[in-house]
Design brief:
The chain has 4 helices and 4 strands. With 174 residues, the protein is an alpha/beta fold. Helix 1 crosses helix 4.
Amino acid sequence: MSHCPYECNIQDGANPVPKPTPKPDHAVEPSQPIAKKQDFEPIVLAFSCNWCSYTSADLAGINHLQYPSCVRIIRFMCSGRIEPDFIMRAFEFGADGIIVSGCKLGECHYISGNEKAEKRLEMTGKLLDLLGYGAERLGSVWISAAEGAKFADYMSDFVKNIHAMGPSPTRNKN
């Protein structure tokens, strides 16, 4: 009988059973808790409308205004397009905070999309409280395209608050 040249203890005709690979010392077991409040990097998603808030984020970048790099911007044509399901899914997959940003109220490029979004956000905040996430993990800001500084300031403040709250309840389950 010959043995496998890769030393996995397989003999001719036997089912292959590879040797277990030792885990490196820095490997994290899924059962270990997520990092403590003070040393975790929050995951924050910003659902931004194309016309005002995404443009204000661009302006913040052009003007070299700093806001946390943990904010991931997802562009929508209108904040009125953002469904509560999108927000709940983001939390389900480990987001620590969600920001919905759009045109100033009354100045929506799609007439009343941001007003619809505001009503949905109020309802979604109540649902987040009911589920134990906390409505304060959901933020909204209504800004014009010329307010890059306001965008950067809001993002910084929101991330600071999320950092103080700690990881989302579902963060370490995924």
